[in-house]
Amino acid sequence: MDNKQTPLHTGFNASTTATEALAGRDLSGMQAIVTGGASGLGLETVRVLAGAGARVLVPARDPHQAQAALDGKAGVEVAALDLLDPRSIDAFAAAFLATGRALHVLVNGAGIMATPLLRDARGYEAQFATNHLGHFQLTARLWPALRQAQGARVVCVSSLGHRQAGVDLDDPHFLRQPYDKWRAYAQSKSANALFAVELDRRAAAHGVRAFSLHPGAILTPLVRHLDLDDLRRVGALDEAGQVNPPPQSAFKNVAQGAATAVWCAASAQLEGMGGVYCEDGDIAALVADDSMGPGVRRWAIDPEQARRLWALSERMTGVRFDCDAA
Question: Is 0.85 surpassed by the pTM of this model?
Answer without folding.
Answer: yes
